Amino acid sequence: MFDLIIRSANLPDGRKGIDIGITGGKISAIDRSIAAQAGEEIDAIGRLVSPPFVDPHFHMDATLSLGLPRMNVSGTLLEGIALWGELRPIVTKEELVDRALRYCDLAVTQGLLFIRSHVDTSDPKLVTVEAMIEVREKVAPYIDLQLVAFPQDGYYRAADGISSFNRALDMGVDIVGGIPHFERTMGDGTASVEALCRIAADRGLPVDMHCDETDDPLSRHIETLAAQTIRFGLQGRVAGSHLTSMHSMDNYYVSKLIPLMAEARINVIPNPLINIMLQGRHDTYPKRRGMTRVRELMDAGLNVSFGHDCVMDPWYSMGSGDMLEVGHMAIHVAQMAGIDDKKKIFDALTVNSAKTMGLEGYGLEVGCNADLVILQAQDTLEALRLKPNRLAVLRRGKVIARSAPRIGELLLAGRPARIDSSLDYAPRD
Fold first, then answer.
1. What does pTM read for this prediction?
2. What is the pLDDT of residue 203?
3. CA 19 to CA 326: how far, in whole Å?
4. How far apart are CA 211 and CA 322, in angstroms?
């Protein structure tokens, strides 16, 4: 007797018509046909059932603050930082909590149940940290929220930046962050990477740094981050986020850099939507688009996962909490349109991101937590193409969100009355 059986599911690995049995919040059986009863059954009717989406790079303290205190007119990263610097001293804890909770509501409907958020520690009042810790506690029943201590104004550059950063960790922030390219000099950036990796080693914490979010090919802090990772024995526990300078580096230097990153087992987190929006702003034409070397990094065996980064905040006026939108853009910008390429992109939104975040019990195997999403698509390729509705979102075997199928009504004589783009418009054999 199972608590729940999902019938006739298609799985991300290509298996079709599979039943998934759930007991006690865990996946207890996966088979072609489970001959058993359950307290509840869901017929997936050949739809894709996947582990939930995972966002390993986000800024929840800034989300949904678009237009406060004003709009980012230039659309640049630096104006976005300046705008956040204007909002941060006047924002209240209640406002931060309210916006973050509203975003989490949206995330759940999109099948996004795991988020790593960078939290600004540059203001000594640390209102942002207090707010996000409260949010982490409130959403714990349905979202796993990791928090990164993020010195937005620079670890060394910000007044009292070091003491504020350390206090944030003492308050219970999970992960050591950084932003070496925003320090006043290249030397200060290098020193900050070493200091922050030392803190992580001493405290037994992971590291996730904004690294080289610039068009400058001489911004090479990822090299320092990889070297310090090895020095302090942090292999596999360190993430380099953005890495956009790699799109401007010469190939000879990259041929040396990528093997060093692989040796350090760096987790790589590009943010396709934001990277292509904010980078290349000083270019006319040819115009760089900003995303790092995704294909080369994957081919070298590095764990690559994608982040949403921002939704309606000083840096990005768009966004929907939909990780498939992130993957859809990655396919275009990385020019990874092959079948195997798209499968890798889907993995970068799910299992790779789960590895980056060190999630336990994540996946679609017997013994894993019954955290699942049923999509209005037949397979992962179709999911990336259509960004379909999430028909059901499950947390520990309980449905916590539903969406109706997206069906078009056609009023044309002699043509079908109902159009389901996932069932009717996949290529036919």
1. 0.97
2. 98
3. 29
4. 24
- For residue 427, what pLDDT is reported? 61
DSSP letter, residue 87: H
Task: Take residue 155 and report the two structure tokens written for it.
Answer: 């670890």
**Which residues belong to CATH 3.20.20.140 in the chain?**
53-357
Return the CATH number of 53-357, one of 3.40.309.10, 2.60.40.1920, 3.20.20.140, 2.60.40.10. 3.20.20.140
What is the rounded CA–CA span in Å between residue 304 and residue 291? Answer: 12
CA distance 65 to 88: 11
CATH C-level class of 2-51+363-424: mainly beta
For residue 273, count other CB atoms closer than 10 A to its CB. 25
The answer to whether residues 78 and 321 touch, using CB atoms and an 8 Å cutoff, is: no
pLDDT digits 0-9 by tens, 54-84: 999 999 999 999 999 999 999 999 999 999 9
**Residue ranges of the chain assigned to CATH 2.30.40.10:** 2-51+363-424
In terms of Cα–Cα distance, which of 234, 255, 360, 246 is closest to 304? 246
Is 169 in a helix, a strand, or coil? helix
Which residue is listed with tokens 């990336």? Answer: 384
Catalytic residues: 213
- Please list the helix, strand and coil fractions of the chain in percent, rounded to the nearest 5, in that order: 35, 20, 45
CA distance 406 to 422: 9
Q: Supply angle C-alpha 310, 167, 87, rounded to 5.
A: 40
pLDDT digits (tens, 9 = 90+) for 351-383: 999 999 999 999 999 999 999 999 999 999 999
Q: Find the length of the chain.
A: 429
Between CA 174 and CA 168 the distance in angstroms is 9
- pLDDT, tens only, 82-92: 999 999 999 99
